[in-house]
Amino acid sequence: MRLILLGPPGAGKGTQAQRLVDKHGIPQLSTGDMLRAAVKAGTPVGLKAKAVMESGGLVSDDIVVGIVADRIEEADAKKGFILDGFPRTVGQAEALDRMLAGKGLKLDHVLELVVDETALLKRIENRAAETVKAGGTVRADDNPEAFKVRLDAYKAQTAPVSAYYAKTGVLKQIDGMQPIDAVTAALGRAIAG
To answer: Annotated catalytic, 13?
Structure first.
């Protein structure tokens, strides 16, 4: 099972991805983690990424897709994988589809957690307050101002990915405002259906 989880920051993608990992025994693939691993391993695409990152540039879509292509060849991803945080743009989605097609593969599901932005902001504020109350340190990107910047970036760059996959007929939208267990159940139904 090869799937993508879409949704804005704070929608619960990380929580739901971990539940899918536990249930289906497939890895959650984070492009950031994969980039760092490829650089550390010194793979050909990792060396390209390292050069770009050291110069302060943004890693190109071709490099990121190359890293995903290498990663899905590993044994733990043979049964499938969950992409979370990628693709971030329509260009990346198109490149991902081409790469998968070149391997004789396709996505089985693109699942989007649909949430109310006002409620999301409240969720982030509550998460920050609970972290402080518990004596923890609030993530730099978990304050309302930083969250609004992340949300605006998501709307401008990543939200169009949803429309791209809707056109292909593979997108299924899930009400991400439900309780966590209800979202998990809805995702399960979407995958089964």
So the answer is: yes
Is 127 part of the annotated catalytic residue set? yes
Write the pLDDT tens digit of every residue in 134-180.
998 876 666 777 778 888 888 888 889 999 999 999 999 999 999 99
Q: Which are the contacts of 92, defined by CB distance < 8 A and separation ≥ 6? A: 61, 64, 65, 86, 161
Q: Is 103 a catalytic residue?
A: no
What is the rounded (10 degree) CA torsion for 37, 34, 30, 140? 60
pTM above 0.70, yes or no: yes
Q: Which residue has the tokens 């991805």?
A: 17
133 in catalytic set: no
Q: Is 123 a catalytic residue?
A: no
3-state secondary structure of 80: coil
Residue in 2, 13, 48, 71 annotated catalytic: 13
Q: Is CATH 3.40.50.300 the classification given to domain 2-26+79-192?
A: yes
Q: Pick the catalytic residue: 36, 88, 123, 148?
A: 88
Domain boundaries, given as residue ranges, for the chain: 2-26+79-192
DSSP string for 124-169 = HHHHHHHHHHTT----GGGSHHHHHHHHHHIIIIIHHHHHHHHHHT
Token pair recorded at residue 105: 């593969």
